[in-house]
Amino acid sequence: MRTGDQVVQGLPWRWRAQGTIFIIGGLGFLFDAWDVTLNAFLIPLVSAEWNLTLGERGWVGTANLIGMAVGAFAWGAVADIIGRKKAFSLTILMFSVFTVAGAASPDFVTFCVFRFLAGVGLGGCIPVDFALVGEFTPARVRGRVLAAMDGFWPLGATLCGLTAAYLAELGSWRLLMLTMVLPALLLFWIRRGVPESPMFLVAKGKPDEAKRVIDQLVAKTGAPREEWRLPELQQTQSLSPKAMFTQLKDIWRFDPRRTAALWVLFLAVFLLYYGAVTWLPSILKAQGYGTYAAFMVTTLTVAVGIVSALVSAWLVDVFGRKWVIAISAPLAALALVLFALQLDIDVAAKAWITLFGMLVQIAIPALYAFAPELYPTHLRASGFGWASTVSRIGAGFVPVLFGALLWPHLGLTWTFAVIGGVVVVATVIMMFNVPETRMQPLAERVPS
Protein backbone atom coordinates (compact mmCIF):
# COMPACT_ATOMS: atom_id res chain seq x y z
CA MET A 1 0.00 0.00 0.00
CA ARG A 2 1.34 3.41 -0.97
CA THR A 3 1.88 6.22 1.51
CA GLY A 4 -0.04 9.48 1.29
CA ASP A 5 2.88 11.51 -0.04
CA GLN A 6 3.47 8.87 -2.72
CA VAL A 7 -0.17 9.30 -3.71
CA VAL A 8 0.32 13.08 -3.94
CA GLN A 9 3.39 12.65 -6.14
CA GLY A 10 1.50 10.26 -8.42
CA LEU A 11 -1.60 12.43 -8.98
CA PRO A 12 -2.42 13.93 -12.38
CA TRP A 13 -1.59 17.63 -12.81
CA ARG A 14 -4.68 19.85 -12.65
CA TRP A 15 -4.70 23.67 -12.81
CA ARG A 16 -7.51 23.92 -10.27
CA ALA A 17 -5.48 21.88 -7.78
CA GLN A 18 -1.69 21.97 -8.01
CA GLY A 19 -1.89 24.75 -10.61
CA THR A 20 -3.37 27.18 -8.10
CA ILE A 21 -0.46 26.57 -5.73
CA PHE A 22 1.96 26.96 -8.64
CA ILE A 23 0.52 30.35 -9.63
CA ILE A 24 0.49 31.69 -6.06
CA GLY A 25 4.04 30.48 -5.53
CA GLY A 26 5.03 31.98 -8.86
CA LEU A 27 3.57 35.37 -7.96
CA GLY A 28 5.51 35.32 -4.71
CA PHE A 29 8.63 34.60 -6.73
CA LEU A 30 7.71 37.40 -9.18
CA PHE A 31 7.64 40.01 -6.45
CA ASP A 32 10.80 38.53 -4.96
CA ALA A 33 12.54 39.11 -8.30
CA TRP A 34 11.11 42.61 -8.52
CA ASP A 35 12.60 43.57 -5.17
CA VAL A 36 16.02 42.01 -5.85
CA THR A 37 16.25 43.65 -9.27
CA LEU A 38 15.51 47.01 -7.65
CA ASN A 39 19.15 47.07 -6.52
CA ALA A 40 20.47 47.47 -10.05
CA PHE A 41 18.21 50.44 -10.75
CA LEU A 42 18.57 52.03 -7.31
CA ILE A 43 22.39 52.22 -7.46
CA PRO A 44 22.62 55.03 -10.05
CA LEU A 45 19.55 56.84 -8.69
CA VAL A 46 20.44 56.98 -4.98
CA SER A 47 24.11 57.63 -5.74
CA ALA A 48 23.07 60.77 -7.62
CA GLU A 49 20.93 61.96 -4.70
CA TRP A 50 23.53 61.29 -1.98
CA ASN A 51 26.67 61.79 -4.10
CA LEU A 52 28.06 58.32 -3.36
CA THR A 53 31.51 57.02 -4.31
CA LEU A 54 31.82 53.91 -6.49
CA GLY A 55 32.60 51.79 -3.42
CA GLU A 56 29.66 53.21 -1.45
CA ARG A 57 27.28 52.44 -4.29
CA GLY A 58 28.06 48.76 -3.89
CA TRP A 59 26.46 48.76 -0.44
CA VAL A 60 23.03 49.20 -2.07
CA GLY A 61 23.25 45.67 -3.38
CA THR A 62 25.44 44.24 -0.65
CA ALA A 63 23.12 45.23 2.21
CA ASN A 64 20.19 43.56 0.45
CA LEU A 65 22.09 40.41 -0.53
CA ILE A 66 23.63 39.91 2.92
CA GLY A 67 20.12 40.21 4.34
CA MET A 68 19.08 37.52 1.86
CA ALA A 69 21.89 35.30 3.13
CA VAL A 70 20.59 35.62 6.69
CA GLY A 71 17.01 35.04 5.56
CA ALA A 72 17.81 32.01 3.43
CA PHE A 73 19.10 29.86 6.27
CA ALA A 74 16.78 31.30 8.94
CA TRP A 75 13.55 30.98 6.97
CA GLY A 76 14.46 27.63 5.45
CA ALA A 77 14.87 26.26 8.96
CA VAL A 78 11.71 28.03 10.14
CA ALA A 79 9.71 26.53 7.26
CA ASP A 80 10.84 23.03 8.22
CA ILE A 81 9.52 23.70 11.75
CA ILE A 82 6.40 25.93 11.56
CA GLY A 83 5.27 24.96 8.07
CA ARG A 84 5.67 26.06 4.46
CA LYS A 85 2.46 28.09 4.27
CA LYS A 86 3.07 30.21 7.37
CA ALA A 87 6.71 30.83 6.50
CA PHE A 88 5.84 31.76 2.90
CA SER A 89 3.29 34.32 4.08
CA LEU A 90 5.69 35.87 6.59
CA THR A 91 8.58 36.18 4.13
CA ILE A 92 6.40 38.03 1.62
CA LEU A 93 5.06 40.35 4.31
CA MET A 94 8.56 41.12 5.58
CA PHE A 95 10.19 42.06 2.29
CA SER A 96 7.15 44.08 1.23
CA VAL A 97 6.96 46.11 4.45
CA PHE A 98 10.67 46.94 4.69
CA THR A 99 11.02 47.84 1.02
CA VAL A 100 8.12 50.28 1.30
CA ALA A 101 9.60 51.64 4.54
CA GLY A 102 12.89 52.21 2.72
CA ALA A 103 11.19 54.79 0.52
CA ALA A 104 11.11 57.12 3.53
CA SER A 105 14.85 56.80 4.27
CA PRO A 106 16.31 60.19 5.28
CA ASP A 107 19.93 59.14 4.65
CA PHE A 108 22.03 56.42 3.02
CA VAL A 109 22.74 54.45 6.22
CA THR A 110 19.03 54.16 7.05
CA PHE A 111 18.36 53.20 3.46
CA CYS A 112 20.89 50.34 3.66
CA VAL A 113 19.40 49.11 6.95
CA PHE A 114 15.96 48.83 5.35
CA ARG A 115 17.44 47.09 2.29
CA PHE A 116 19.08 44.57 4.65
CA LEU A 117 15.81 43.88 6.49
CA ALA A 118 13.91 43.53 3.21
CA GLY A 119 16.62 41.09 2.15
CA VAL A 120 16.01 38.92 5.20
CA GLY A 121 12.44 38.40 3.96
CA LEU A 122 13.57 37.96 0.37
CA GLY A 123 16.14 35.33 1.25
CA GLY A 124 13.51 33.15 2.85
CA CYS A 125 10.95 33.43 0.09
CA ILE A 126 12.87 31.42 -2.51
CA PRO A 127 13.64 28.17 -0.60
CA VAL A 128 10.27 28.16 1.17
CA ASP A 129 8.40 28.83 -2.07
CA PHE A 130 10.10 26.05 -4.01
CA ALA A 131 9.78 23.55 -1.15
CA LEU A 132 6.04 24.25 -0.95
CA VAL A 133 5.33 23.97 -4.67
CA GLY A 134 7.64 20.96 -5.08
CA GLU A 135 5.85 18.93 -2.41
CA PHE A 136 2.49 19.36 -4.16
CA THR A 137 3.77 18.64 -7.67
CA PRO A 138 3.55 15.15 -9.27
CA ALA A 139 6.95 13.51 -9.71
CA ARG A 140 6.60 13.09 -13.49
CA VAL A 141 6.26 16.86 -14.07
CA ARG A 142 8.04 18.22 -11.00
CA GLY A 143 11.22 19.27 -12.79
CA ARG A 144 9.22 20.97 -15.52
CA VAL A 145 6.96 22.77 -13.06
CA LEU A 146 9.74 23.99 -10.75
CA ALA A 147 11.81 25.18 -13.70
CA ALA A 148 8.77 26.87 -15.24
CA MET A 149 8.09 28.64 -11.95
CA ASP A 150 11.41 30.34 -12.38
CA GLY A 151 9.84 32.08 -15.38
CA PHE A 152 8.16 34.35 -12.87
CA TRP A 153 11.62 35.68 -11.93
CA PRO A 154 12.45 37.33 -15.27
CA LEU A 155 8.84 38.47 -15.51
CA GLY A 156 9.14 40.22 -12.14
CA ALA A 157 12.57 41.61 -13.06
CA THR A 158 11.17 42.87 -16.37
CA LEU A 159 8.23 44.60 -14.70
CA CYS A 160 10.70 46.17 -12.28
CA GLY A 161 12.86 47.40 -15.16
CA LEU A 162 9.95 48.87 -17.08
CA THR A 163 8.65 50.57 -13.94
CA ALA A 164 12.13 51.89 -13.14
CA ALA A 165 12.60 53.24 -16.66
CA TYR A 166 9.29 55.09 -16.43
CA LEU A 167 9.75 56.45 -12.89
CA ALA A 168 13.39 57.40 -13.56
CA GLU A 169 12.05 60.00 -15.97
CA LEU A 170 10.19 61.45 -12.98
CA GLY A 171 13.42 61.38 -10.97
CA SER A 172 11.89 59.38 -8.12
CA TRP A 173 13.48 56.22 -6.73
CA ARG A 174 11.19 56.53 -3.71
CA LEU A 175 8.09 55.94 -5.84
CA LEU A 176 9.83 52.91 -7.30
CA MET A 177 10.17 51.38 -3.84
CA LEU A 178 6.55 52.14 -2.95
CA THR A 179 5.38 49.75 -5.68
CA MET A 180 6.38 46.88 -3.39
CA VAL A 181 3.19 47.36 -1.40
CA LEU A 182 1.63 45.07 -4.04
CA PRO A 183 3.03 41.75 -2.69
CA ALA A 184 1.23 42.29 0.62
CA LEU A 185 -2.07 41.88 -1.26
CA LEU A 186 -0.99 38.35 -2.23
CA LEU A 187 -1.28 37.27 1.41
CA PHE A 188 -5.08 37.16 1.21
CA TRP A 189 -4.93 34.65 -1.65
CA ILE A 190 -2.30 32.56 0.13
CA ARG A 191 -4.55 32.18 3.17
CA ARG A 192 -7.45 30.94 1.02
CA GLY A 193 -5.74 29.09 -1.83
CA VAL A 194 -2.73 27.28 -0.34
CA PRO A 195 -3.03 24.30 2.03
CA GLU A 196 -0.15 23.25 4.24
CA SER A 197 2.14 20.61 2.72
CA PRO A 198 0.87 17.14 3.70
CA MET A 199 4.45 15.86 3.70
CA PHE A 200 5.29 18.50 6.29
CA LEU A 201 2.16 17.73 8.36
CA VAL A 202 3.03 14.04 8.54
CA ALA A 203 6.63 14.83 9.44
CA LYS A 204 5.38 17.03 12.29
CA GLY A 205 2.96 14.51 13.76
CA LYS A 206 -0.34 15.90 12.39
CA PRO A 207 -1.77 12.91 10.49
CA ASP A 208 -5.41 14.02 10.63
CA GLU A 209 -4.64 17.34 8.95
CA ALA A 210 -2.42 15.59 6.40
CA LYS A 211 -5.19 13.11 5.55
CA ARG A 212 -7.68 15.93 5.02
CA VAL A 213 -5.33 17.80 2.67
CA ILE A 214 -4.50 14.66 0.66
CA ASP A 215 -8.16 13.63 0.33
CA GLN A 216 -9.07 17.13 -0.88
CA LEU A 217 -6.23 17.07 -3.40
CA VAL A 218 -7.29 13.66 -4.74
CA ALA A 219 -10.88 14.92 -5.13
CA LYS A 220 -9.79 18.12 -6.94
CA THR A 221 -7.62 16.23 -9.42
CA GLY A 222 -10.34 13.65 -10.15
CA ALA A 223 -7.92 10.80 -9.50
CA PRO A 224 -9.33 7.35 -8.62
CA ARG A 225 -9.66 6.89 -4.89
CA GLU A 226 -7.44 4.26 -3.35
CA GLU A 227 -6.50 2.99 0.04
CA TRP A 228 -3.30 4.54 1.30
CA ARG A 229 -1.45 4.83 4.56
CA LEU A 230 0.32 7.64 6.36
CA PRO A 231 4.08 7.17 6.76
CA GLU A 232 5.51 6.73 10.21
CA LEU A 233 5.40 9.83 12.40
CA GLN A 234 8.67 11.59 13.03
CA GLN A 235 9.70 13.39 16.18
CA THR A 236 8.58 17.02 16.20
CA GLN A 237 11.08 19.83 16.65
CA SER A 238 10.66 23.20 18.32
CA LEU A 239 11.81 26.46 16.78
CA SER A 240 15.16 27.57 18.22
CA PRO A 241 18.69 28.50 17.09
CA LYS A 242 19.79 25.07 18.28
CA ALA A 243 17.19 23.43 16.02
CA MET A 244 18.40 25.45 13.04
CA PHE A 245 22.01 24.39 13.50
CA THR A 246 20.92 20.80 14.17
CA GLN A 247 19.33 20.90 10.72
CA LEU A 248 22.62 22.16 9.29
CA LYS A 249 24.41 19.22 10.89
CA ASP A 250 21.77 16.84 9.51
CA ILE A 251 22.18 18.30 6.01
CA TRP A 252 25.91 17.53 6.07
CA ARG A 253 25.40 14.14 7.70
CA PHE A 254 22.87 13.19 5.01
CA ASP A 255 25.43 13.51 2.19
CA PRO A 256 28.48 15.77 2.67
CA ARG A 257 29.70 15.46 -0.93
CA ARG A 258 26.28 16.35 -2.30
CA THR A 259 25.91 19.32 0.05
CA ALA A 260 29.40 20.65 -0.63
CA ALA A 261 28.92 20.42 -4.40
CA LEU A 262 25.54 22.14 -4.20
CA TRP A 263 26.93 24.99 -2.09
CA VAL A 264 29.82 25.60 -4.50
CA LEU A 265 27.44 25.51 -7.47
CA PHE A 266 25.02 28.00 -5.90
CA LEU A 267 27.89 30.31 -5.00
CA ALA A 268 29.38 30.27 -8.50
CA VAL A 269 26.16 30.71 -10.47
CA PHE A 270 24.92 33.60 -8.35
CA LEU A 271 28.31 35.31 -8.31
CA LEU A 272 27.94 35.34 -12.08
CA TYR A 273 24.33 36.50 -12.11
CA TYR A 274 24.44 39.20 -9.43
CA GLY A 275 27.88 40.42 -10.45
CA ALA A 276 26.54 41.22 -13.91
CA VAL A 277 22.96 42.30 -13.34
CA THR A 278 23.52 44.45 -10.23
CA TRP A 279 26.12 46.59 -11.95
CA LEU A 280 24.88 46.51 -15.55
CA PRO A 281 23.03 49.87 -15.49
CA SER A 282 26.11 51.53 -13.96
CA ILE A 283 28.43 49.88 -16.51
CA LEU A 284 26.25 51.11 -19.35
CA LYS A 285 25.98 54.62 -17.92
CA ALA A 286 29.79 54.75 -17.61
CA GLN A 287 29.86 53.75 -21.28
CA GLY A 288 27.81 56.83 -22.14
CA TYR A 289 24.25 55.49 -22.11
CA GLY A 290 21.51 57.70 -20.72
CA THR A 291 19.53 56.50 -17.68
CA TYR A 292 16.51 55.39 -19.72
CA ALA A 293 18.64 53.53 -22.30
CA ALA A 294 20.76 51.82 -19.62
CA PHE A 295 17.64 50.72 -17.76
CA MET A 296 16.01 49.37 -20.92
CA VAL A 297 19.07 47.34 -21.95
CA THR A 298 19.18 45.86 -18.44
CA THR A 299 15.46 45.13 -18.68
CA LEU A 300 16.00 43.28 -21.97
CA THR A 301 18.76 41.22 -20.36
CA VAL A 302 16.39 39.93 -17.68
CA ALA A 303 13.29 39.84 -19.94
CA VAL A 304 14.74 37.14 -22.22
CA GLY A 305 14.64 34.93 -19.14
CA ILE A 306 10.88 34.56 -19.62
CA VAL A 307 11.58 32.44 -22.70
CA SER A 308 14.68 30.88 -21.10
CA ALA A 309 12.66 29.55 -18.17
CA LEU A 310 10.27 27.79 -20.55
CA VAL A 311 13.21 26.33 -22.46
CA SER A 312 14.79 25.22 -19.18
CA ALA A 313 11.51 23.63 -18.06
CA TRP A 314 11.58 21.44 -21.17
CA LEU A 315 15.30 20.69 -21.09
CA VAL A 316 15.48 19.51 -17.46
CA ASP A 317 12.99 16.71 -18.07
CA VAL A 318 14.54 15.69 -21.39
CA PHE A 319 18.27 15.86 -20.63
CA GLY A 320 18.27 16.02 -16.83
CA ARG A 321 19.11 18.78 -14.37
CA LYS A 322 22.87 18.23 -14.31
CA TRP A 323 23.59 18.54 -18.02
CA VAL A 324 21.41 21.63 -18.42
CA ILE A 325 23.35 23.39 -15.64
CA ALA A 326 26.76 22.10 -16.77
CA ILE A 327 26.35 23.47 -20.29
CA SER A 328 24.34 26.68 -19.82
CA ALA A 329 26.23 28.17 -16.84
CA PRO A 330 29.77 28.11 -18.37
CA LEU A 331 28.42 29.37 -21.69
CA ALA A 332 26.73 32.25 -19.86
CA ALA A 333 30.09 33.15 -18.30
CA LEU A 334 31.74 33.08 -21.73
CA ALA A 335 29.07 35.40 -23.16
CA LEU A 336 29.70 37.85 -20.31
CA VAL A 337 33.44 37.92 -21.01
CA LEU A 338 32.74 38.58 -24.70
CA PHE A 339 30.37 41.39 -23.71
CA ALA A 340 33.18 43.05 -21.76
CA LEU A 341 35.65 42.56 -24.62
CA GLN A 342 33.32 44.18 -27.15
CA LEU A 343 31.73 46.81 -24.92
CA ASP A 344 32.77 49.57 -27.33
CA ILE A 345 30.90 47.90 -30.20
CA ASP A 346 27.29 48.78 -29.46
CA VAL A 347 25.51 46.06 -31.45
CA ALA A 348 27.91 43.30 -30.40
CA ALA A 349 27.79 44.31 -26.73
CA LYS A 350 24.00 44.22 -26.71
CA ALA A 351 23.98 40.83 -28.44
CA TRP A 352 26.43 39.27 -25.97
CA ILE A 353 24.68 40.62 -22.87
CA THR A 354 21.34 39.38 -24.21
CA LEU A 355 22.85 35.93 -24.82
CA PHE A 356 24.23 35.99 -21.28
CA GLY A 357 20.74 36.75 -19.98
CA MET A 358 19.27 33.85 -21.94
CA LEU A 359 21.87 31.29 -20.84
CA VAL A 360 22.17 32.19 -17.16
CA GLN A 361 18.38 32.13 -16.87
CA ILE A 362 18.33 28.61 -18.30
CA ALA A 363 20.84 27.53 -15.64
CA ILE A 364 19.09 29.10 -12.64
CA PRO A 365 15.66 27.44 -13.13
CA ALA A 366 17.39 24.09 -13.54
CA LEU A 367 19.35 24.73 -10.34
CA TYR A 368 16.19 25.68 -8.44
CA ALA A 369 14.42 22.55 -9.68
CA PHE A 370 17.45 20.46 -8.73
CA ALA A 371 18.19 21.65 -5.19
CA PRO A 372 14.89 20.74 -3.42
CA GLU A 373 15.02 17.24 -4.91
CA LEU A 374 18.34 16.43 -3.25
CA TYR A 375 17.02 16.33 0.34
CA PRO A 376 14.34 14.45 2.28
CA THR A 377 11.15 16.12 3.52
CA HIS A 378 12.29 17.45 6.89
CA LEU A 379 15.47 18.92 5.36
CA ARG A 380 14.10 20.06 2.00
CA ALA A 381 13.49 23.75 2.72
CA SER A 382 16.49 24.08 5.04
CA GLY A 383 18.78 22.19 2.63
CA PHE A 384 17.81 24.56 -0.15
CA GLY A 385 17.92 27.47 2.29
CA TRP A 386 21.49 26.84 3.45
CA ALA A 387 22.70 26.47 -0.15
CA SER A 388 20.98 29.75 -0.94
CA THR A 389 22.61 31.32 2.12
CA VAL A 390 26.08 30.44 0.88
CA SER A 391 25.33 31.94 -2.53
CA ARG A 392 23.97 35.14 -0.98
CA ILE A 393 26.96 35.53 1.35
CA GLY A 394 29.35 35.24 -1.57
CA ALA A 395 27.25 37.26 -3.99
CA GLY A 396 26.46 39.76 -1.22
CA PHE A 397 29.99 41.09 -1.24
CA VAL A 398 30.16 41.23 -5.04
CA PRO A 399 28.63 44.72 -5.38
CA VAL A 400 31.16 46.25 -2.96
CA LEU A 401 34.16 44.25 -4.22
CA PHE A 402 33.12 44.88 -7.82
CA GLY A 403 32.82 48.65 -7.34
CA ALA A 404 35.77 49.21 -5.01
CA LEU A 405 38.32 46.63 -6.16
CA LEU A 406 37.64 44.37 -9.14
CA TRP A 407 36.27 46.74 -11.78
CA PRO A 408 38.73 49.61 -11.04
CA HIS A 409 41.85 47.38 -10.87
CA LEU A 410 41.23 44.29 -13.02
CA GLY A 411 38.85 45.76 -15.55
CA LEU A 412 35.56 44.21 -16.66
CA THR A 413 37.01 41.48 -18.87
CA TRP A 414 39.29 39.92 -16.25
CA THR A 415 36.68 40.35 -13.52
CA PHE A 416 34.13 38.36 -15.51
CA ALA A 417 36.78 35.83 -16.60
CA VAL A 418 37.70 35.05 -13.00
CA ILE A 419 34.06 34.55 -12.04
CA GLY A 420 33.60 32.38 -15.14
CA GLY A 421 36.49 30.18 -14.04
CA VAL A 422 34.75 29.63 -10.71
CA VAL A 423 31.59 28.58 -12.57
CA VAL A 424 33.48 25.99 -14.65
CA VAL A 425 35.10 24.47 -11.55
CA ALA A 426 31.72 24.33 -9.76
CA THR A 427 30.00 22.51 -12.62
CA VAL A 428 32.78 19.90 -12.78
CA ILE A 429 32.44 19.29 -9.03
CA MET A 430 28.67 18.91 -9.45
CA MET A 431 28.96 16.37 -12.26
CA PHE A 432 31.09 14.05 -10.14
CA ASN A 433 29.40 14.42 -6.75
CA VAL A 434 25.65 15.00 -7.19
CA PRO A 435 23.15 12.40 -8.50
CA GLU A 436 20.70 13.16 -11.28
CA THR A 437 17.14 13.52 -9.93
CA ARG A 438 15.11 13.50 -13.15
CA MET A 439 11.89 11.49 -12.68
CA GLN A 440 12.95 10.34 -9.20
CA PRO A 441 10.44 10.43 -6.29
CA LEU A 442 11.10 12.84 -3.44
CA ALA A 443 12.67 11.22 -0.39
CA GLU A 444 10.45 11.05 2.69
CA ARG A 445 13.18 10.93 5.30
CA VAL A 446 16.88 10.38 5.92
CA PRO A 447 17.72 6.68 5.97
CA SER A 448 18.69 5.37 9.40
Automatic annotation (TrEMBL):
Segments traversing the membrane: 21-46, 58-78, 87-104, 116-133, 145-167, 173-190, 260-280, 292-316, 323-343, 349-371, 383-407, 413-432
Keywords: Membrane, Transmembrane, Transmembrane helix, Transport
UniProt subcellular location: Cell membrane
Membrane topology type: Multi-pass membrane protein
Residues in Major facilitator superfamily (MFS) profile domain copies: 21-438
Transmembrane helix is among the record's keywords: yes
Entry-linked InterPro entries: MFS, MFS_dom, MFS_trans_sf, Sugar_transporter_CS
PROSITE patterns membership: MFS, SUGAR_TRANSPORT_1, SUGAR_TRANSPORT_2
PANTHER family: SYNAPTIC VESICLE GLYCOPROTEIN 2 (PTHR23511:SF34)
Name of protein: MFS transporter
Natural source organism: Lentzea atacamensis
